[in-house]
Amino acid sequence: MREFFPGEILLLKKKHPCGENSWELIRVGADLKLRCRGCGHLLILPRCRLGKLLQRENESEGRERSGLREEPRKEKGRIPEQGKDEN
To answer: Is residue 19 part of a domain?
Structure first.
């Protein structure tokens, strides 16, 4: 399962009654707290339910709001074993 960060903007499959389908992630834990970007309604969901409701996320906007920057991935390399002679 992917990680979530406060400030991310998530797009859900179904629209809220106010007509908006984008939500701002407010709190992350066992449950996730979302705020509707249209009317400000608060919603608390368990993590397992959010995966089914999630359409896609606007990562660039969410990362900018939360202050996170995308860093290049470091390649995982084999660490040489210490203490063994190669002779």
So the answer is: yes
Residue 46 lies in a domain: yes
pTM: 0.59
Domain interval for residue 23: 9-66
Domain membership of residue 41 (yes or no) is yes
| CA 6 – CA 34 distance, rounded (Å) | 9
Q: Is residue 48 part of a domain?
A: yes
Round the average pLDDT of the chain to a whole number and report it: 76
Type of residue found at 63: R
Can you give the three-state secondary structure of 21-57, one letter per residue?
A: CEEEEEECCCEEEEEECCCCCEEEEEHHHHHHHEEEE
